[in-house]
């Protein structure tokens, strides 16, 4: 029996890609005589290639008579037709008592990817209007996406009033409301996060400010960072990035974290622990412990059968992995293969049994899963609540239902973001000749674009909260009262606004709440509000360390870390005593805090805790702190670790900094307070100047510095010259400052210091700050008038823009074919300049056609230039070979030129690379040129 969406339509012409696949099927019939083997060829191979036909064979263990190996129908079908929102409602399957209703749909919004709410409950919608408009992801990087803002002004439950808050964006990565009429976002293939503000109240952002940089990565739009998220600890986290950032009065700082292995989804529970959602794995990716404490390998995180989805019978079998991932005969997904969006439900208008339950979407299976976290001896195992019924919390018989985000809403219910889209795999996996492309064209899924719905989940007898929030208009004292609200969203929003306002008048009320309130959740938020305001005091923590509630003792440990990093070393005694706590979870937290702060006698104290507490979680954490597990291959979601030698450089620099520099610049690099709002010396943590060209810091250390910086003066007066120190000493401390104080910049070598020392030998006096800035090489930007050409240029991905100039943006550039001697990449500067350095990043690429499989290593191709020369020219005709025989390397490459005068700079390959089955192209991204006029 056909579903309602299979309406009669005129026959469609068979697409070219489908004909290719059918031809392969026919040829296979001649080459493979056994009919069951022929079926296996079509069913099992995601990529159909004529070249691969002779290699096909039936694998061991497959029963040719198995019912799952039926002939696959690849004939054209009636196109899948979109339903109206009211029609789609009838196709949802929910547990008894639950209901679903649309609250915002197309044409008002198109292709929503995420939602977020500001303090007045206004809903911001991330509209990814360029996502998969055809099977080739054509124009995916065109500036056609937007962030819109919606209100329910008549309070009928439907968001009817909206504005375009920001338009013409290139596939934006996230939307984070950040105070009054303000959001943070960034675009794909970009490196900067910007703050957008509506200053005149018309619902449209008219002010754009840089918030932080060095935040992005390039590549497939599904593999880039997403979901910048405001954590309960007042830090900002995101998927992919193994760091967190935070705004301070002196700039945005950052700290390294563990790898979260996530793609599209971050949320947190009532205790502030972050939960990250994987993508290709189809599973939650990081949830055992707070990610700032690093990675711990925990076996059996998922209950048996957790990776099996139980979606409704859709029949399409449009699965990227091929027919081996299709449940026969209903055509549904038999193993999770993609996931997006997540939420730990913390509302107050659904049944209490849902509180603390984890929800996430699997848009390939067309389900929203409810997960029950079961904690035993400090370790968490995830269970699918509806697994025994072979079902899910939310299913749909509409093949266009694509749940990509969800959120606890201001009204206390759960919202579901439904992209309502035909294709839900990016163009890299829908190329011509693939199984998925065949299914897309068979049902014309590529024609269903430009739609999207947002749904509200309700329950019988529990009406949504009609008391709309107005926090942006309320006093800070009133916001403190919201910290007691039963809806976790309202507590989060109130805390964020309290911290962003920096209104210290509420500190007494917060202290009273954290110490005496009977609501443990209010106490937790009050504690973190104090921490965010910089008003948390040691005497308050001392009382919390002895609190009868272990949840409060855990929060005290976490919040105290800020004070310890700022120099409050007396807290060491509390950490040591917490290792003997009678509560297992407190002990585990104390162990992680000790590791995070690198406390003295770490190993012996950890062993002591393990001897006193035999819980499995204590044993696992303790053993992995003492003997860290081998670092996992993070593939496209990781970040390169420092080498052993580089770690030694940073460690030596840390000793120098803590013995000498911290007195003025602060233990954490934020500057030592000197009273009356002044600092002894400028903050180094989060400093863009420190993270830019290293010559700024080296010159300041060698020759000293004085004068106002950006109009601010400091009580220390001057930075003394330290030219008597060795090149290694200077390199070590600069490397630490650039990499170890909430900064993320390259390390430098003694050789670099020696060159700068030689060039500046005539500097006999201390630098005036303004003159120092003018003497340091600056990055020459695209907008300055750069022109780029290359011998070979190819798009770095399906749907990408083909331009040599893209190496200066974040997308990157590639030859597209195997590295051959003589290939070149050339930059023409706006005028003759003194070029001093060239930086570029050479990333490793995942092999083409790679399909994700659990516990399977990711195959990489190293695309760095193996050997090259650097040439310069003042006229483009006569070239000078500046540096011969340069050996490239994976990751960051830095080439120094000793301020060579040039208008043209050319990198040219000096060696070809033997093929290893696949082409090994030359690829670059984040190319930067430093120079002076």
Overall description:
The chain has four domains: 94-133 and 146-185 and 205-459, Neuraminidase; 500-633, Serine Threonine Protein Phosphatase 5, Tetratricopeptide repeat (Alpha Horseshoe), CATH 1.25.40; 642-776, Cytochrome c-like domain (Cytochrome Bc1 Complex, Chain D, domain 2, Orthogonal Bundle); 782-932, Jelly Rolls (Sandwich). The chain is 23% helix and 23% strand. The protein has 20 helices and 42 strands. Strands 33, 34, 35, 36, 39, 40, 41 and 42 form an eight-stranded antiparallel β-sheet that branches. Strands 1, 20, 21, 22, 23 and 24 form a six-stranded antiparallel β-sheet that branches. It has a four-stranded antiparallel β-sheet with strand order 2-27-26-25. Helix 12 (584-597) packs parallel to helix 14 and helix 15 crosses helix 18. The longest helix is centred in the C-terminal third of the chain and has 22 residues, at 644-665. The termini are far apart. Residues 648-741 form the Cytochrome c domain. This is C-type cytochrome. InterPro entries: 6-blade_b-propeller_TolB-like, ARM-like, ARM-type_fold, Cyt_c-like_dom, Cyt_c-like_dom_sf, DUF7133, FA58C, Galactose-bd-like_sf. Residues 775-932 form the F5/8 type C domain.
């Amino acid at each position: 029996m056909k579903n309602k969406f299979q309406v009669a339509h005129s026959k469609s012409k068979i697409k070219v890609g489908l004909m290719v696949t059918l031809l392969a099927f026919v040829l296979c019939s001649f080459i493979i005589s056994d009919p069951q083997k022929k079926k296996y060829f079509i069913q099992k191979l995601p990529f159909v290639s004529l070249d691969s036909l002779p290699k096909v064979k039936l694998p061991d263990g497959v029963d040719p008579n198995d019912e799952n190996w039926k002939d696959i129908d690849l004939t054209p079908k009636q196109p899948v037709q979109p339903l109206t929102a009211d029609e789609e409602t009838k196709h949802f399957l929910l547990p008894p008592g639950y209901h679903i209703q649309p609250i915002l749909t197309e044409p008002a919004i198109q292709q929503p990817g995420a939602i977020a709410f500001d303090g007045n409950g206004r809903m911001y919608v991330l509209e990814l209007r360029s996502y998969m408009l055809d099977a080739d992801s054509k124009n995916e990087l065109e500036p056609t996406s937007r962030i819109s803002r919606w209100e329910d002004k008549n309070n009928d439950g439907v968001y009817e009033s909206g504005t375009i808050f920001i338009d013409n964006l290139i596939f934006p990565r996230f939307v984070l409301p950040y105070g009054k009429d303000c959001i943070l976002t960034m675009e794909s293939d970009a490196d900067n996060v910007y703050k957008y503000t509506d200053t005149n109240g018309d619902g449209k952002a008219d002010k754009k400010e840089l918030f932080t940089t060095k935040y992005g990565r390039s590549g497939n739009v599904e593999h880039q960072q997403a979901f910048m998220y405001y954590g309960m600890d007042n830090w900002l986290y995101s998927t992919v990035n193994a760091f967190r950032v935070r705004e301070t009065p002196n700039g945005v700082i950052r700290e390294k974290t563990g790898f979260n292995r996530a793609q599209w989804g971050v949320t947190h529970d009532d205790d502030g622990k972050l939960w990250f959602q994987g993508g290709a794995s189809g599973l939650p990716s990081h949830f055992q412990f707070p990610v700032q404490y690093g990675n711990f390998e925990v076996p059996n995180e998922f209950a048996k059968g957790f990776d099996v989805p139980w979606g409704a019978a859709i029949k399409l079998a449009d699965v990227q992995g091929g027919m081996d991932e299709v449940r026969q005969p209903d055509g549904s997904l038999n193993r999770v293969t993609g996931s997006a969006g997540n939420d730990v439900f913390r509302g107050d208008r659904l049944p209490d049994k849902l509180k603390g339950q984890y929800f996430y979407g699997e848009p390939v299976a067309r389900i929203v899963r409810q997960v029950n976290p079961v904690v035993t001896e400090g370790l968490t195992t995830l269970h699918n609540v509806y697994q025994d019924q072979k079902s899910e919390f939310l299913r749909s018989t509409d093949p266009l239902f694509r749940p990509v985000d969800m959120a606890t809403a201001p009204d206390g219910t759960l919202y579901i973001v439904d992209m309502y889209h035909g294709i839900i795999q990016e163009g890299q996996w829908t190329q011509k000749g693939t199984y998925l492309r065949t299914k897309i064209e068979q049902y014309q899924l590529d024609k269903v674009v430009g739609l999207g719905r947002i749904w509200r989940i309700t329950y019988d007898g529990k009406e949504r909260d009609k008391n709309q929030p107005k926090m942006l208009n309320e006093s800070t004292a009133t916001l403190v009262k919201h910290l007691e609200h039963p809806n976790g969203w309202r507590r989060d929003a109130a805390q964020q606004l309290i911290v962003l306002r920096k209104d210290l008048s509420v500190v007494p009320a917060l202290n009273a709440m954290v110490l005496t309130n009977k609501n443990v959740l209010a106490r937790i938020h009050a504690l973190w509000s104090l921490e965010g305001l910089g008003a948390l005091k040691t005497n308050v923590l001392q009382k919390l360390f002895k609190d009868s509630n272990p949840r409060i003792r855990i929060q005290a440990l976490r919040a105290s870390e800020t004070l310890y990093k700022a120099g409050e070393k007396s807290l060491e005694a509390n950490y040591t005593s917490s290792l003997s706590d009678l509560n297992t979870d407190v002990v585990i937290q104390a162990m992680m805090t000790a590791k995070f702060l690198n406390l003295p006698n770490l190993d012996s104290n950890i062993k002591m805790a393990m001897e006193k507490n035999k819980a499995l979680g204590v044993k696992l954490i303790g053993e992995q702190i003492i003997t860290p597990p081998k670092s996992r291959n993070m593939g496209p979601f990781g970040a390169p670790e420092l080498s052993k030698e580089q770690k030694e450089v940073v460690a030596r620099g840390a000793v120098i900094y803590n013995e000498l520099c911290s007195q003025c610049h602060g233990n954490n690099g934020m500057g030592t307070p000197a009273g009356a709002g002044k600092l002894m010396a400028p903050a180094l943590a989060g400093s863009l100047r420190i993270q830019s060209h290293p010559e700024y810091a080296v010159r300041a250390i060698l020759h000293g510095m004085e004068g106002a910086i950006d109009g601010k003066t400091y009580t220390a007066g001057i930075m003394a010259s330290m030219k008597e120190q060795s090149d290694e000493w200077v390199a070590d401390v600069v490397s630490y400052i650039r990499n170890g104080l909430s900064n993320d910049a390259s390390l430098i070598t003694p050789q670099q210091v020696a060159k700068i020392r030689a060039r500046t030998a005539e500097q006999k006096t201390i630098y005036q700050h303004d003159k120092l800035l003018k003497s340091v090489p600056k990055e020459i930007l695209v907008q300055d008038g750069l022109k780029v050409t290359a011998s070979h240029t190819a798009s770095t991905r399906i749907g990408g823009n083909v331009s040599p100039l893209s190496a200066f943006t974040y997308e990157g550039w590639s030859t597209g074919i195997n590295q051959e001697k003589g290939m070149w990449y050339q930059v023409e500067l706006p005028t003759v300049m003194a070029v001093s350095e060239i930086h570029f990043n050479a990333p490793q690429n995942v092999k083409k056609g790679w399909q994700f499989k659990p516990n399977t290593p990711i195959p990489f191709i190293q695309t760095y230039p193996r050997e090259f020369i650097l040439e310069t020219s003042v006229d483009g005709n006569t070239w000078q070979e500046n540096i011969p025989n340069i050996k490239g390397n994976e990751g960051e490459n830095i080439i120094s030129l000793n301020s060579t005068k040039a208008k043209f700079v050319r990198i040219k390959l000096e060696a070809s690379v033997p093929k290893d089955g696949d082409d090994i192209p030359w690829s670059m991204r984040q190319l930067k040129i430093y120079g002076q006029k």
